[in-house]
Design a protein that fits this description.
Elements (H helix, E strand, L loop, with lengths): L5 H16 L4 E4 L6 H12 L6 E5 L2 H15 L4 E5 L4 E2 L4 E5 H4 L11 E5 L11 H7 L5 E6 L3 E2 L2 E2 L10 E5 L2 H6 L5 E4 L5 E2 L6 E2 L2 E2 L1 H8 L2 H15 L5 E4 L3 H13 L4 E4 L6 H9 L5 E4 L14 E4 L6 H9 L10 E6 L3 H5 L7 H9 L5 E3 L6 E3 L18 E2 L4 E3 L13 E4 L2 E8 L6 E9 L2 E7 L6 H13 L9 H6 L9 E4 L3
Parallel strand pairs: 1-7, 1-10, 2-5, 2-6, 3-5, 6-7, 11-19, 15-17, 15-18, 16-17, 18-19
Antiparallel strand pairs: 3-4, 8-9, 12-23, 13-14, 20-21, 22-23, 24-28, 25-26, 26-27
Length: 509
């Protein structure tokens, strides 16, 4: 039996409340290391009385086994089975863990199921011909809950749109919350003299063309420079994970590591002994593991303390997943170094705050009206030469060609956005109700008075979708009255239940 952490309990309660009061299909956003399998098991346990038949769907056998094992520990039930050709099991029981590849054309076996939990739900496409959409098109009455660390489809949010399968967020577990609670380790990115120059690389399906990436960057001189830098500066790191462009590139990187005296292993889709290799890496037999995409989901090796990104991507999901492999905590592990040779952090942003807003602006205009200050990561007007937020002097782009498709352009973008400009003492707190100029709906306002300055939190209980979900999440963290207010007036009536807040962290916008 598991004892839930407070954020896991909050996620379960908020999702149950959503299913009770709303009609849509919500998402739980939970970073790597938040314990999705525990949340899934607890949802099954508490919802099993109302939903006698629950199916948990994902795309990989490793994730199915992880979730199945967690559930059997939590429930001690004999009515739990697996339906997956890859695991040689075809059980249809009241609680069934299934592979979408195995069940998408077996809808008749699951028509009596009323609740579906979808792990790694960012892989559910909008395409009507996809396996997920074909499956659910034939299921008559059901509720669906998704779980993911990356609620993005390429560079857009994957919920709330007219055509999206998922409608809202029932709860979001913030990466920085887990870091503060020491449930995840810190990720630290250092500048590198080696950066891939992706200019001229075309995109296929929304991401960089793999063949063109390989042709440009899978070269001995590039690989040697990168591996030499890692060996010279980070040989003391115990467990390295390197992500490459394709199988040939991964093989060449692996050979280069061996040549430099690093105990390295190779994992990719065409090898039969991946499971044993991964176990050997976890046991410490190898210092480095080189991979393509096999290890981006469903891989758990907490000892990883160095991530090397040798694969350029324009996908926020892949970007977050690759770096997230190093966020697990482990005894003796202080942090995880992230070496981004592909420029993904500069291009896509910190993994806990990717550049969605910038991207959405860019769709409407040829050039976004703002840019990122490389020192403080703040949004500033594009024409400015000095950041008004931190005072950093911004030079025009200067790129020195090093040859071999590399640039001298050290990354100064941080892998995690941890900006708190100040911690302020709260002198007084006031509560009021204001109307939103945009929607005309009421908002519950919490006004923090800090000496001569005032800061306002707007909780949108009268709104729908994510705005209300976020308000409920904040309410759960600050109020002793755990049931969420029905609206802003109700929140004002319950204001006495808000805990005493003595300090607030503020950041510049």
């Amino acid at each position: 039996m598991f004892t839930l952490y407070d954020y896991q309990e909050a996620a379960v309660q908020a999702t149950m409340e959503y299913l009770k009061t709303e009609k849509g299909n919500p998402i739980i956003i939970a970073p790597t290391g938040a314990g999705k399998s525990v949340i899934i098991s607890e949802l099954i346990k508490r919802l099993n009385l109302e939903h006698k038949n629950i199916c948990i769907i994902t795309h990989r056998e490793t994730i199915i086994k992880q979730n199945y094992n967690a559930c059997t520990k939590q429930l001690n039930s004999v009515y739990v089975g697996i339906y997956s050709a890859g695991l040689n099991s075809r059980d249809v029981l009241p609680i069934t863990f299934a592979s979408i590849n195995s069940i998408y054309n077996k809808q008749h076996l699951f028509k009596h199921f009323t609740l579906f939990l979808i792990d790694e739900c960012h892989l559910v496409p909008d395409n009507a011909k996809s396996m997920y959409q074909q499956f659910f098109a034939q299921i008559p009455n059901y509720k669906a809950v998704g779980l993911t660390a990356t609620p993005f489809r390429h560079k857009d949010l994957m919920f709330g749109g007219h055509d999206n399968f998922f409608t809202d967020v029932s709860y979001e577990i913030d990466f920085m919350t887990l870091l503060e609670k020491q449930k995840l380790c810190n990720l630290v990115s250092y500048s590198s003299r080696q950066q891939f120059d992706t200019k001229g690389i075309k995109k296929t399906g929304g991401d960089y063309n793999t063949k063109q990436l390989s042709h440009k960057f899978d070269r001995n001189e590039i690989t040697e420079k990168i591996i030499n830098e890692i060996v010279a500066n980070y040989l003391h790191r115990k467990a390295w994970l390197l992500f490459c462009i394709d199988i040939n590139h991964a093989t060449n990187v692996h050979k280069c590591l061996l040549k430099k005296g690093v105990k390295s292993c190779l994992v990719h889709s065409k090898l039969n002994d991946n499971a044993k290799t991964i176990d050997d890496f976890k046991s410490g037999l190898y210092q480095a593991m080189v991979s393509v995409a096999v290890l981006t989901t469903g891989f758990d090796a907490p000892q990883v303390d160095l991530i090397g990104i040798l694969r350029a991507t324009d996908s926020i999901t892949l970007h977050v997943q690759m770096i997230g492999r190093g966020a697990r905590i482990c005894e003796g592990k202080k942090d995880c170094i992230v070496l981004d040779y592909a420029g993904n952090i500069d291009r896509l942003g910190p993994i806990n705050m990717p550049y969605l807003e910038m991207i959405q602006v860019a769709k409407k205009n040829k050039e976004p009206p703002t840019k990122i200050c490389i020192n403080c990561l703040g949004y500033i007007k594009r024409h400015l030469k000095k950041c008004p937020l931190c005072g950093f002097k911004i030079k025009d782009k200067q790129e020195e060609d090093l040859g071999h498709n590399l640039q001298l352009k050290p990354s100064k973008c941080k892998v995690l956005d941890q900006r708190l400009d100040d911690m302020l003492t709260v002198d007084n707190i006031y509560y009021s109700i204001k109307k939103s100029k945009k929607t005309g709906l009421e908002m519950f306002c919490i006004v923090y008075s800090c000496y001569t300055r005032k800061f306002i939190d707007f909780l949108c209980f009268d709104h729908e979708g994510y705005a209300r979900t976020k308000a409920i999440q904040i309410w759960h963290s600050i109020s002793e009255h755990k049931k969420a207010p029905l609206n802003s007036k109700h929140a004002l009536a319950l204001a006495k239940s808000i805990k005493k807040i003595t300090h607030i962290g503020v950041r510049k916008k």
